[in-house]
Please model this.
Amino acid sequence: MIRTVSYLATLVAVLGLAAADGSALAQGKGKDKDRQEQGDTKGKKEEKPQKAKHVHHNGKDLLGDKIKVNGKHKLHENGKHTAFVNVANGKITGVSVVHADKGPVPVKKYKTTKKMAEAPASGFQTVAFNLAQSYGTQYLGQTWIGYSYYDDWGNEVIYWFPYDMIYDGDTGAVEYIPAY
Model:
C-alpha cells in the first residue's frame, strides 16, 4: 500500500511539473542545439533565392536595319546565351538561342496585344498612363509576337516583335499571360 501511494505521489508530481513548464514533454532531443544555431544567425543576413522574373527586350530595336538583309543575324547576348534571328525577304522566320557550353536552347513563341517591351519593371501600369504612352505609337489591336528562353539563372528572356515583322506570327504562338 505504501508503495502504491509512493508511485501515485511521484506520478502527480511529474504531471504537475510537466503541466506547469509545458516544455518538459514537448521538448525533443536536440532542440536546444537548434535554438542555439538560430541564435547565432541573428546577426547575419540570410540569403534568400531570388524569384525568377521575365526580362523583356524590344526585338525590333535590337534587330534594327538587319531586317533588310536575308540570313541569320546575332540579336543579343545574355551571359553564355546568344540569340539569333533568321530573316527572309524582310520578315523574321524564327529566333534561335545557343548556349556556349550546352548548345541549342528551346525557344517558346508567345503572342499578346500588350506592348510588353516597354512595360514598367513593377508590372503595374494604370490605364490613364497606358493610353497616354501608347497613343500615336501603336494602334488598337496591335499584336506582338515574343520569342523566349530560360537563362542560367531561371529568368525568362523574351524578345518582342510587332506582328507585321513576323513571317508566320500565329503558328505555334501561345497567349502570353504576364506573371505579376
Summary: The longest strand covers residues 91-99. Confidence is low (pLDDT under 50) at residues 119-136.
